[in-house]
Amino acid sequence: MTVTLLDGGMGQELVARTTDTPTGLWSTKIMMDHPHLVTEVHAEYFEAGADIATANTYAIHRDRLGPHDLEHLFEDLHRKACQLACAARDAHGAGRVAGALGPLGWSYSHEGAPEAARAAELYAEICGVQRDYVDLFLIETIASVEQAKGALQGTVGQGRPVWLALTVDDSDGTKLRSGDALADLAPVVAETAPDAILLNCSRPEAILQGLGVLGTLGVPFGAYANGFERIETYFLKADSAVEGLQARKDLGPVEYADYADGWIERGAEIVGGCCEVGPAHITEIAKRLGRG
Fold first, then answer.
1. Pair 17, 65: CB distance under 8 Å
2. From CA 261, how far away is CA 227, in angstroms rounded?
3. What is the C-alpha to C-alpha distance for residues 269 and 260, in angstroms, rounded to an integer?
4. Which SS3 state, helix, strand or coil, does residue 42 take?
5. 259: part of which helix (H) or strand (E)?
6. What's the confidence (pLDDT) of residue 133?
7. CA–CA gap between residue 288 and residue 209 (Å, rounded)
8. Higher pLDDT, 162 or 25
């Protein structure tokens, strides 16, 4: 089995490379002020062995830009982020670019998201902007079945492969953070036919629990965990910043790659990293895949 190696987190890497204070826009504002850092991070992930650069578009939603009077830059920011990822890929001479489609509302929660029909319209708009630049769409950090339905409907017919990444409960990886059972995604998957399903931005222990469920859905699957201690309750609201979340001390490159090995043993065909998982972690996984 050939394993596709994703990159790692972008936002935390950018925060670590600047003295700027993180905001609710996550890495979008840093990209506006320091675009060379985005290119630098993409390049380091490719050098580490990643097959894919995930464009820095996760937080570029109208509902996130509006409170900062930046909604007029919506299309320009998507294009810029995609172009930076493409430039890094081209300089590397190989690889693919994934257009990140982050959750509507706020991360790790389904409560701030619009209903599926409206979400589909918003995601379709994003796909229309990204389509000419990216090789695939990567829907990320989806916390409920309804969120998944809206996002997937928005990508149908957009002319690119679609990967859906879901965030699961840190104590029970067989459930989404909304409390929905992973198994309840089966009808949505059958209807919209994503090309892969992944678990992301959750504790690696929980991801290991959930992979058995993904294996029953009939499509390729994979995982990329975060390195946070936990997702604090205060973070589950609009315009939250990541500076208050604590990184684990027991999840270095070797330990993280041990988890990735376990995911692959369970049948994962796609692995990588999310927040607090950096180039050194991807390097270790690549080494174990015989690429370094």
1. no
2. 16
3. 11
4. helix
5. helix 253-265
6. 98
7. 22
8. 162
Find tokens 């990209």 and name the residue: 31
Displacement of CA 277 from its chain's centroid (Å): 12
Type of residue numbered 137: F
What is the CATH classification number for the domain harbouring 149?
Answer: 3.20.20.330
What pLDDT does 237 receive?
46
Tens digits of residue pLDDT in 38-50: 999 999 999 999 9
Whether the CB-CB separation of 8 and 273 falls below 8 Å is answered with yes
pLDDT at position 29 over 90 = no
* Cα separation, 223 vs 204, whole angstroms: 9
Tokens 């369970």, residue? 266
> How many other CB atoms sit within 10 Å of the CB of residue 107?
22
Domain count, the chain: 1
Q: In 3-state terms, what secondary structure has residue 111?
A: coil
Q: What is the pLDDT of residues 173-227, one digit of tens each?
A: 999 999 999 999 999 999 999 999 999 999 999 999 999 999 999 999 999 999 7
3-state class of 270 per DSSP? Answer: strand
DSSP-based three-state secondary structure for 277: coil
- DSSP 8-state class, residue 243: G
Q: Does the pLDDT at position 239 exceed 70?
A: no
137 within 8 A of 99, measured Cβ to Cβ: yes
Cα–Cα distance measured from residue 141 to residue 171, given in angstroms and rounded to the nearest whole number: 16
pLDDT value at 127 more than 80: yes
Whole domain around residue 107: which residue ranges? 4-288
Asked if 138 and 175 count as a contact pair (C-beta separation under 8 A), the reply is no
Give the residue with greater pLDDT, 230 vs 274: 274
